Amino acid sequence: MSRMPIIAGNWKMHLTRRRAAALARAVAAAQGQADGRRCVVFPAFVHLEIVRRNLKGSNVQVGAQNCHEMKEGAFTGEISAPMLRDMGAQQVLVGHSERRHVFGETDARVAAKLAAVLANRMAAMVCVGETLEERESERTLEVLQRQIQALAGVLRAEHHGRFSVAYEPVWAIGTGRTATPRVAQEAHAAVRRLLAGILGAEMAARTPVLYGGSVKPGNADELLGQPDVDGLLVGGASLDIESFGPILAAAPSA
Ligand code: PEP
Fold first, then answer.
1. Is residue 105 part of a domain?
2. Which of 76, 86, 98, 148 is the most exposed place for a label (fewest CB within 10 A)?
3. Domain for residue 253, yes or no?
4. How remote is the CA of residue 155 from the centroid of ligand 1, in Å?
5. Which structural domain, as residue segments, surrounds residue 224?
């Protein structure tokens, strides 16, 4: 089953409006008219509008890094899925490891956010992955199973095309330590088996599973060469077109 590769940039809490706009233009130029790969960038909420405008005319999508699960209410400082949709966001990252581990988001909360994103007709990229301690105590599979099973009540076949998973081992995020292609492939195959358990084999085979964790120009090729690695979610190296451009180019353009 061939799945179109997706290269995604998570800009986290970085950049100014001006730099975000310039980076958006550079990403749009690097993506060019490529129709063999997808590209999406996740700027900070306050840069969504300007990034969207600077991507206009390209096929690069813009997404948000998080959302609140309720549609409105007394939740000071939060942003809802309908607000994101209204801003032109096409995707939302859900359950990024920094949300889970720094801000204490539970599996149930991640599932509620996924439901909000899908209900608002945007695509969701759900992040899963184990910590170093969990890997070292051989609990990787158990963690992935728990995180994916938590989505079971939300996902349905009709969501196909608006749902992807990013396997991001927490020990590889922002640490410079990348999973070897073999470790990534093993985890991706496990993610796909777990997805098959809730969505059926056919939809699981069609669901993109991206790898994230210290991706750089030097390791993008090898990771993308794994049969179950359908794309890359890039943090640090997505902030600069000198590094993001070559990562994007590692995915076939036609
Ligand atoms: C991320 O933020 O999703 C990520 C993978 O970060 P980095 O590439 O910096 O490890």
1. yes
2. 76
3. no
4. 25
5. 6-22+50-67+78-240
Q: Could you count the other beta carbons within 10 Å of the beta carbon of residue 38? A: 21
Residue 1 within a domain: no
Residues contacting residue 81 through CB under 8 Å, at least 6 positions apart: 67, 68, 69, 71, 92, 113, 116, 117, 119, 120, 122
Total domain count, the chain = 1
One-letter identity of residue 51? V
Give the pTM.
0.96
- In the reported structure, the alpha carbon of residue 36 is separated from the centroid of ligand 1 by a whole-number distance in angstroms of 24
Domain annotation covers residue 31: no
Question: Mutate which of 10, 132, 171 to test ligand 1's pocket (most atoms within 8 Å of Cβ)?
Answer: 10
Q: Which amino acid is at 165?
A: V
Q: What is the pLDDT along the chain (254 residues), one digit of tens a residue?
A: 678 999 999 999 999 999 999 999 999 999 999 989 999 999 999 999 999 999 999 999 999 999 999 999 999 999 999 999 999 999 999 999 999 999 999 999 999 999 999 999 999 999 999 999 999 999 999 999 999 999 999 999 889 899 999 999 999 998 888 899 999 999 999 999 999 999 999 999 999 999 999 999 999 999 999 999 999 999 999 999 999 999 999 998 87
